[in-house]
Amino acid sequence: MRIQPTLSPLLCLLPTLVTATGFDCAHVNADGYKYDLSDLGGVHSLYHVDETEEYITNTTYVLNICNILRGASMRNGLKCGTSKNICGFKSTKAVDGSEENDVAFPIVGLDHMGYGTKDPEITRLKKLDSSREGLMVKLWGGEYITDKKEKKRAGAVIEFKCDPERSGLEGLQSQEETENPERRSFTALQKREDSGSDEGGDSSRSLQFTSFGPGDDNTYILKLDWRTKYSCDDYLSDNKGKSSGGHWGFFTWFIIILFLCVSAYLIFGSWLNYNRYGARGWDLLPHGDTIRDIPYILQDWFRRVVNTLQGTGSRGGYSAV
After folding, report:
1. How far is CA 113 from CA 78, 83, 100, 110, 143, in A?
2. What ranges do the domains of the chain cover?
3. Which residue in 43, 44, 77, 138 has the fewest CB atoms around it within 10 Å?
4. Maximum Cα–Cα distance across the chain
C-alpha cells in the first residue's frame, strides 16, 4: 500500500518526460509561432557519394521526422534500430574491388532503455538571420563509430526553409524504392552515372543533403536543407479558414450514417411484414399508415403556422357594420 504514493508522482511526470525527449512534428512552437510539419512525415531517403582515388563511399540516409522507422531501419542485412528516426547506411568499396565494408549507424532516435534521447532544439531562422524564414531543428539520439573505432554522439540539423511554392515532397524517393534496397541501390548508381552527381545536387528535390561530419563539439552532425511551405511563419494562420471544411465532413458523415440506418430499418421492417403477415404495397413498410399520413400532417402543420402568423395582427371581436 505504500508503493502507490511513490508511483503517482512518477506517472504524472511521464507526459512531461515524453515531451522533453520527443519531437511532435504536428505541433511545433517557436517564438509564439505555430507550425505543422506532419505532411512531411513518412519514410524518405536520400544519398551522397564520396569518391577518392582508392575508395567509393555511398551513404544512404533514411528518415522519418514524425515517427520511428520500424522496418525501414533494416537494409541489406544491416540494422540501425527500429526506434530511430534517422539512420545512415554506408557502403565503402575499393576501386580495385579488393575491399568492401557496409555499416549502419543511428543518427536520431529515442531508445527504449532511457539513453539516446532526441533533445530537440527548435529555432526560427529569422532569429539567426532576418532575411531568412523557416525553422532550424536539432535532434539527437544517435551514435557514430569513426574509422579509429571511437564512439561519437550523432545528431541532425534540419533547416526547414520557407518556400510557398513547395510542399516539401518534390523529388523524394517512392516508398517502393525506400523499402527495396536492391532497387534503391540500382537507382542510385544509375542516377550517379547519368548525371555525374548525387541527389544533393538535384535542385528539383525539396530535401537536400548538405554534409555529414564532426562538429565543433566533437559530435557527428548530419545537415539537411528542406524547402517547404509548412515552415513559413504565417502558413497556419493564413490557411486556418480552409480547414473549416472538416466540420462539413462531419455533418456529411452524420447524414450518410443516418440515411443508412433509416434504409436498414425500412428494408428489415418490410422484409418482416412480408414474411410474417404477407403484406403488400404500402403495408410492407413499417408504420405505413403514419408514412402515408405525413403529407397531410405537414399540410395541417403548415396551415396552422400560416393562420397563426396572419392572426397576430388581426383584431378580435365583431367588426363594425
Report:
1. 21, 11, 33, 9, 15
2. 19-241, 248-303
3. 77
4. 124
